[in-house]
Design goal:
This protein has 951 residues and is an alpha+beta fold. 39% of the residues lie in helices and 29% in strands. The chain contains 30 helices and 35 strands. The strands form seven sheets. It has a five-stranded antiparallel beta sheet with strand order 2-1-5-4-3, sandwiched between helices. Strands 7-6-10-9-8 form a five-stranded antiparallel beta sheet, with helices on both faces. Strand 11 and strand 12 form a beta hairpin. Helix 25 runs antiparallel to helix 26, helix 28 packs parallel to helix 29 and helix 29 runs antiparallel to helix 30. It is elongated and about 190 Å long. The N and C termini lie far apart (107 Å).
């Protein structure tokens, strides 16, 4: 708005530079000035002509009213009008009128004519595109609706959704997304809304919805953000999967049903080991879809079918238990094609392993279609061309196909050109064509069609399909849109379900768990198995004449009735509840309850377990775990292959390992020095043969490579059938005991040496002196009484005998040959002494000297040989004894072989053998006593050359 009238010359200069057509008008609309674009107005309206005449007659009134407002109120005005150009062609203009004010009076008006013909044309094209979208949206047999992203109120809904939910269109559009969901789903809906607000991808998966009549159903939901009429909205596509979900739950209870669903399922299905991610089983659909053979599948892991950019995400991802939807992941086929896959998994036990069963639904085309739907110009491709279900459009007059989508091309095997040459009769078998003619004659405009039909593919294969359709106007022709869903595999699965019902009945009767069936309305029992009758103490006739409240506590019945009334069909529940037996005893049962529809009736299936016993077992398990971990002694569990399955903290501290480094990764043999392997295997054999605990001593390797001596008490573990499954051992560190034993033996050896020297050097000298004195006394008394002479002679003889005994005792305590000439010389002297005193044929075999042994170690070996030779004479009645001493592989091997009657099997070992075993352990060696095949006994001691190893 201007406050003073500018000069015409200045106004022309300014207006000439504007891109739009500009005209100066007086009160009656006469044009007194135009800019350079005046050529767009016919010459008769230039300079003095009425600009309103330039406008189409239908819009002149609006133009005059806008001009009057400018001059009367002094305000701007804007109007869209239809005008004509130099060539008499009509064009659209947006006219803006601005007042020119001089001394508070409107003198003139400036009109700006902006050409908006192209914009109007685009708007009309957009309107036609929206009408096409609207037709496809409303004619689609799949329920879908639009939701405002900010308010969550419904913007639009198609007829299929209204039929599914039971609302009229006016009722539905007055509601929001929360009004058609149960209260339990509202937190999840709010989280989804917050995700939309942050610009994150809309969630997808299984949602629960509530119909107008209050009934609930589950739907598989796909979502896509889009802008409609400037409003940021979300497209919801919801396919009712209630029946499919119920069937999946029933099938999961039967192995035969699982096999049918797994093998015949049109979607790729796989089973993977939870621990290793290695594939354990795949169905035919997975083999066809991904291109790998079954053998190739079973050699791969889950990471092998994901592209590199997804593998890091897969490593960090943790798969929960139960039925879990994981959303869309990228995967790679054998030919390198990258696809988008919607993954759903469930936990199961497969071939004795903790496994995961996954269902892969290729949503590559579906996602592409949803992305196309976001762009309004490609809405047809979203809802039709890229739809995962086969869709066809045929002319209702000629019955010829005029459009098919890619899914129809794939399912039936015909190319698109072949489809367009066919009629609806060509894909039906001859037996179905009469029915089709009746159906087509009964089809009326606006009437939707659906049902199960038989079709024939190009290869001649017969398939069963669930067909739904809706009359539509397509490309200006009266047509019919059909959506097809292949249910051949589902029909086979249903047949398998019927065959499995008898098996389920047998399984119900034979189940070891108490089970019963209750009518939901009357609460009377319809069925009960033997385990339940045994638990409650009733006969079958007595039980079937009872109602559910008859076996419940009176105080629990009101709450039970409230829960039953609110319990929706198809829902599982579990909890501990109290029951009363026939004898009046109150028991607690862990009850699993499933509500279902059977033959038009609502029933409850109850499966019970004795919760009292389970709680006791849990308490015992907890106590055992506390005792296991708090034990000061090391504890370990080993399976039958020798692999460590469990250890406690004390065992880990003993060897210096972490639990993760031992469990499942090491065996008891890898922790045991090689010289103890035979001892281990013999102990294991005795344990399996007798079933009695076995005690023995050995050594373990620590993590730092040092050794630790331990004592073990090992016992056998058995399963419920009494079969051995492994062994358990109590492991005690005996390092300190070993050190004390060595010190005691060393002190004993030193004391023996000291006592031997004292006997030889002190007492022996005294006795020798007494002997000389007695002999001297005998000489002096020779001329006197014969009695005194004989007494002196007896004293001298006794003293000489005592000297000889002291010498023998000293030699026994400290073998002189051992200290002066070594172990072979001492053993030869021992053999000679045995021949002389025991009457044995005793000899030593020693090919070459043994070097590098300490005196204490030599003494231990000597005492072992000495005890073995004495035992052969005293206990075995042996006539011949051979002592063998040799060095091999860094070890000294002492072997004593006799020809006596041999050691008895299983006979309790005496003190001598235990002392020999103890001396061998002090040397860090192994000791063994066994029967000789030809008769007699063999004693073997094997020790390191350097004696007992350092601890």
């Amino acid at each position: 708005m201007s406050e003073r009238a500018p000069s015409d010359e200045l106004l022309r200069t300014i207006l000439a530079r504007l891109p739009d057509l500009v005209v100066k008008l007086d009160r009656r609309g006469r044009a007194s000035f135009l800019n350079r674009d005046a050529k767009a107005i016919p010459p008769r309206q230039v300079h003095g002509g009425c600009a309103i005449d330039f406008v189409d007659s239908a819009y002149r009134g609006a133009m005059r009213r806008a001009l009057a407002r400018v001059f009367r109120k002094g305000r701007s005005a804007e109007v869209e009008v239809l005008g004509v150009d130099d060539f008499r062609a009509q064009r659209w203009y947006r006219v803006r009128l601005e007042p020119v004010v001089w001394r508070r009076k409107v003198e003139e008006a400036i009109a700006y004519f902006a050409d908006i013909t192209s914009l109007k044309s685009a708007q009309e094209d957009l309107a036609r595109s929206r009408e096409s979208y609207r037709l496809l949206f409303h004619a689609s047999p799949i329920p879908m609706w639009l939701v405002d992203r900010k308010t969550l109120r419904f913007v639009e809904v198609n007829d299929a959704a209204l039929r599914q939910l039971g609302y009229a269109r006016s009722e539905f559009l007055g509601k929001s997304a929360g009004d058609i969901r149960p209260r339990s789903e509202l937190p999840r809906l709010r989280r989804a809304a917050r995700s939309w607000a942050r610009g994150l991808p809309p969630p997808r998966g299984i949602w629960t919805y509530r119909r107008k009549d209050g009934s609930l159903f589950e739907a598989e939901v796909s979502t896509q953000r889009m802008t409609i009429d400037g409003r940021d909205s979300v497209l919801i596509i919801a396919q009712d999967v209630t029946e499919r979900r119920r069937a999946e739950k029933v099938l999961a209870e039967s192995r035969e049903s699982y096999r049918l669903i797994f093998e015949a399922n049109p979607n790729p299905m796989v089973v993977a080991d939870r621990a290793t991610s290695r594939w354990l089983a795949v169905n035919e659909a997975a083999i066809r879809h991904y291109g790998y053979s079954r053998e190739q599948w079973l050699k791969m892991t889950a990471g092998d079918i994901h592209p590199p950019q997804e593998r890091e995400r897969l490593k960090r991802y943790r798969i929960g238990r139960g039925l879990v939807s994981h959303g869309v992941w990228k995967q790679r086929k054998k030919d390198g094609t990258i696809i988008d896959v919607d993954i759903t998994t469930n936990s199961l036990r497969f071939q004795g392993r903790d496994a995961i069963m996954g269902t892969f639904r290729d949503v590559t085309s579906e996602r592409a279609a949803l992305e196309a739907f976001r762009r309004s110009q490609e809405s047809y491709r979203l809802l039709f061309d890229r739809h995962p279900n086969p869709m066809m459009v045929w002319d209702r007059k000629t019955f010829r196909y005029i459009a098919v989508n890619d899914a129809a091309v794939r399912l039936y095997g015909y190319s698109r050109e072949e489809w367009l040459r066919k009629t609806v009769f060509d894909i039906r078998p001859a037996s179905e064509r009469a029915r089709l003619r009746r159906y087509l004659r009964a089809l009326r405009p606006g009437l939707a069609g659906h049902g199960v039909w038989k079709h024939v593919t190009k290869s001649g294969a017969a398939i069963e399909v669930d067909v739904s359709g809706q009359p539509v106007l397509f490309q200006g022709r009266d047509a019919f849109l059909q959506s097809v869903r292949d249910i051949t595999a589902r029909r086979r699965a249903e047949e398998g379900l019927r065959q499995a019902q008898e098996f389920d009945r047998i399984r119900f009767e034979a189940s070891p768990l108490p089970m019963w069936v209750t009518d939901r309305d009357t609460l009377r029992f319809d069925g009960v198995n033997d385990a339940a009758l045994k638990l409650f103490g009733y006969s079958r006739d007595q039980f079937l004449n009872l109602r559910l409240p008859d076996i419940r506590l009176a105080t629990d019945i009101p709450g039970m009735l409230r829960r039953i009334k609110a319990f929706p069909p198809g829902i599982h529940a579990r909890g501990v509840q109290r029951f009363r037996r026939k004898d009046g005893a109150v028991i607690e049962l862990d009850l699993f309850l499933h509500a279902m529809e059977l033959h038009g009736r609502s029933i409850f299936l109850a499966i019970a377990r004795d919760a009292t016993r389970e709680r006791q077992l849990q308490a015992l398990e907890h106590q055992f775990s506390e005792m296991f971990q708090s034990s000061r002694d090391g504890l370990n569990f080993v399976d039958m292959t020798g692999r460590i399955k469990q250890v406690n903290d004390a065992f880990c501290r003993l060897l210096g390992y972490r639990r993760e480094e031992l469990v499942g990764k090491r065996t008891f043999l890898t922790l045991t020095p090689p010289e103890f392997h035979k001892l281990n295997m013999d102990a294991q054999k005795r344990l399996l043969d007798t079933g009695e605990p076995v005690e023995y001593e050995k050594e373990y390797f620590r993590k730092d490579g040092t050794r630790v001596p331990v004592s073990l008490r090992s016992f056998l573990l058995r399963d419920a059938d009494g079969q051995p499954v492994g062994t358990a051992a109590i492991v005690r560190d005996i390092s300190e005991r070993k050190r004390l034993e060595r010190e005691i033996l060393e002190i004993g050896a030193r004391e023996q040496s000291r006592i031997g020297r004292e006997l030889h050097d002190s007492l022996g000298q005294y006795l020798t002196g007494i002997s000389f004195l007695a002999k001297s006394l005998k000489v002096r008394l020779a001329g006197q009484s014969a009695a005194e002479t004989r007494a002196a002679e007896r004293i001298a003889q006794a003293a000489s005998d005592a000297v000889e005994q002291v010498k023998a005792l000293a030699a026994g305590l400290v073998p002189a040959e051992l200290l002066s000439n070594g172990l072979p010389a001492a053993l030869r002297a021992l053999c000679a002494q045995a021949e002389k005193t025991l009457g044995l044929d005793c000899a030593l075999s020693c090919p070459k000297p043994v070097a590098g042994m300490e005196d204490a170690s030599l003494l231990h070996l000597y005492r072992i040989a000495q005890e073995a030779v004495n035992n052969a004479a005293k206990h075995a009645d042996a006539r011949t004894v051979r002592v063998h001493l040799r060095e091999a592989d860094g070890r000294v091997i002492l072997q004593v072989v006799d020809d006596g009657k041999g050691i008895r099997r299983g006979k309790h070992r005496g003190l001598g053998l235990k002392i020999m075993e103890h001396r061998a352990r002090m040397l860090g060696g192994a000791f063994e006593v066994k029967r000789r095949p030809g008769g007699g006994t063999v004693v073997v001691c094997s020790s390191p050359v350097g004696g007992a190893p350092a601890r």
